Structure formats: structure tokens, C-alpha cells
Amino acid sequence: MIREGKQQGWLSLPVETLPVWAAFNAVTFDGVNIGPLPGKEDRGSTVIAKRSLKGGEEPPLMTIPRDLILSLARIHEHAKSDSDFHAVLDGLDEFGRTARGATLAFLLMQAFTACPHIQNKKGVSSPFTEYVKYLPMEMLPTFWSPAECELLTGTTLAPALTAKLNSLNREFERLRDATSRLPWCAEQWWDEVDGILEFDDWLQVDAFYRSRALEYPGVGDCMVPCIDMANHSSGNSTAAIYEVDEEGNAVLILRDGKTVEQDGEITITYGDNKGACEMLFSYGFIEDEMKSARELFLDLSIPGDDPLGRAKSAVANCAPGFKIVDAGDGVIWDGAYIWLICVNEEDGLSFQIQQTVEGNRELIATWQDEPVHGFEGFRSILEQDPLWDVYHLRAVSILQERVASQLQDLYGSDDRVDAAHYGDGTEIRERAWDLVKRLRHLESELLEKAYSFYEDKKLQLMQSETVMRFLSGGDAEQDEDFS
């Protein structure tokens, strides 16, 4: 893309020249600068205090004009004056009307417009034409080598990464199909010999958006130049907050009572409650201070011998899995899909075909002859049932079995990971190896904690009068195995 040759990577501008771009685009800095921390140049650029700063007594550290907030509305406004980009956006149809689709297409088009060796330029330049050159090449797991990805076996990041790469491939092919009908795209982007666009370019704009998009009040997901250079720190370590002022400009403000000495780092939070897997997936790092994986997501599947399996899959309107969250002295979990798995026809679940007012036919679920309108709230319905403790015990048993399976996969691949080497002559870099080892350790600890929690919960539920009566045949003839 912005390259002198296909294999030479995107061109970049030195961050030392960013103040020139900022001044030209009416971005103001007050008491801060952007660059590497003194003595920690290997960490890349961040926001640095030029003098001692005290929260509650400082004006905004940065002010970015509202026209530079890269939101969905701003992108569509740009498309009105850029017919080439407008044609690309139109070709993407529904995807181009989402914040993600529009932003990725916009960044890609700006990078193409900035390409130094394109003779027949397309697209209208904007402040982002130059700003994309300041964005660092994000080395998220989507850029990892096959050997590095192999180290993730047994972690919750492994399936998430596979699914993401498949999704990115589909998006890239959608972009190709949508724009190949435009003559200039067919020639300059997709020509087999001279075409400039590659899958890595789509990976890069995805990385820009995924690692730098912020959720602004009243704006939604967007990218904000300069503020997106700030690094992450959670909890009390977060130095500054970002918001929108009365005029709609984006501002960076030091938190009340927070003091940052000269040459100190001005951090923001990317999300205090995000787990280790999500931090590595979206931002390419795990906080040094993180002592727990915090949360993880495990997939679930309906057993193949479930007589209602196909019907359940057809009506399920919830994620096929559950989330485990570290709660300090225990764990909490959330996931509606489990309740769909642990009840069946003999309990009161049934399905029927119903004709809609439009004349279409649809499959609906009923519980105890009452329609079930979505399974997100199915737990609250089951809690009112006299056999709730039985359903609860089934769910806990299924969840514990799934946790045990994940632990087996994780521990079963430990030897392979321990035998891997990084450095010269290998596809594994030291940083990737360190991150994987950390993720594996944090997730194994949380999984072990969840397994013990479910074991205690099972023992507790087994003492329930409802469960004991059910197992003895007092309520139904069931052959349950909760071991």
C-alpha cells in the first residue's frame, strides 16, 4: 500500500514531526508531547508530560477539532466530496454502513491516496492522508507467524484468532468483489501483475481500528488523532480521561487529584475489566500488573444425540458459550446458551411451526406450553420452576466438564510450548513467546479456580431436597449422571 515495493511495508513519518501536522490541523497540546518515554524508547510513542501536571488545575492537555473525530457520520460526510471513495463505500453495501466497515474502507482509501508511486491518483486527501503515516505497524496476533499461533493451543485466544482471520478473509473478499467492478480499482488494486492491494493491507487497517477505536459519549466508536497515541493503564493508574467538550471537540483531561511529573506518561484506559485474552487480541499486550486472566469465554455445543438439537440450534439467539469472570473469592459466569442445552422435551421444552401475519412459517419454542421469546431471559423462567435445582445442577455439571476439557487441552500442549525456542533461525519472537506463556499461566489459574468453584456448587446442589427427590424417582424417572 503506502510502500515503495510490495514487500517493504507501509511508509511512516517520524513522530517528531507530528506537532507540525497537529498545528496545521488546529490540534492543540498543553503541557504534553508525543514521543518515546526517555530511557524506554523500545516501548514506542506515547503521551508525555512536558512539565509537572496536576489534575483539577490544568486546562485540556489536548484538544482535537470535532472535524477530526473519525466517526461514521464524519466518514459519510467525506464521501460526499470524494466520488471515488463514495463508489467504494456504496459497493460495500450494508457493511459500508457500519462504523467498522466504513472506517476500514476509509483508512484503506486514505493510505492508497497517500501512496507515493501511484501516477493516476484517486480519492480526495484529508488530514488522515498524512496521519495514517504516523500510526505504528500494530503487531497484533493476526500478524503472528504460524509457529507463534501454534503456541496458543489450549488458550481461549486460539479459536478467537482463527475465527477473526476467517472473518477478515471474508471481509477482504467482499471488498474485492464489491470494487472489482470499478475500472480504476480493477486496474490499480486487483490487477494480477500491477495490483497494489494485499490481504496484509486489510489486516493493517483492521489493527489500526481494533487497537485505537475509542467509544466517545454521543459519538460512538471512533478514532481520534493524537489521543489514540496514549497508552493504557487501568484502575488508579489511569492518568487522564477523554471526552467531548461543549463545542463537540475531543479533549484529553488529567483526572482530578492526579499528578504527573515532567517526562511522566499520560495514560488512558482501554477498559479496566477486559481480560488477558481480549487485551492481547485487541491491543497486542497484557498489563504487567495483571494478576488474573479476569475473564474468559468458552464455547459450548449441543450434544449430537440431543433429539431436539437441530431445533435448539435453529431458535438459539444467544452466543454458543459462556463467560467466566474472576470474582476474587470465587467466579461468576454468564451465558444463556447453557439453559438451552440442559432441558429437553420431558422437562417441558417443545417446538412447533407457526405462521406469521405475513404468511411466513417460523419455528417457535415453548416451555410448559408457553411461548419462549428469546433465550436470553430463559434462566429467569427456569428459576420459577419447581425443578430449578435440578436444571441448575445439570448446568453446573456441563460447565465443569467444559472447563475440564479446556484444562486438558491447555496442559496437554504445555510440553510442546516449553520445547519451542525463539530467536535467530526461528519464526518465534521473544515477545510473542513471553506473551503466550503469560496468557497460558493466567488462564490456567482461572480455569482451575472455576473447576473448584463448580465442584463446590455441585456438592451444594446435590444436597437439595428437590435434587434428592428427583434422583430417587420422586418427580420423574431420570437416569442422571452428575459425577
Automatic annotation (TrEMBL):
This is SET domain-containing protein. Residues 30-271 form the SET domain. One of its GO terms (molecular function) is protein-lysine N-methyltransferase activity. InterPro entries: SET_dom, SET_dom_sf, SETD3_SETD6_MTase. GO terms for cellular component: nucleus. It comes from Aureobasidium subglaciale (strain EXF-2481). PANTHER family: SET DOMAIN-CONTAINING PROTEIN 8 (PTHR13271:SF76), UNCHARACTERIZED PUTATIVE METHYLTRANSFERASE (PTHR13271).
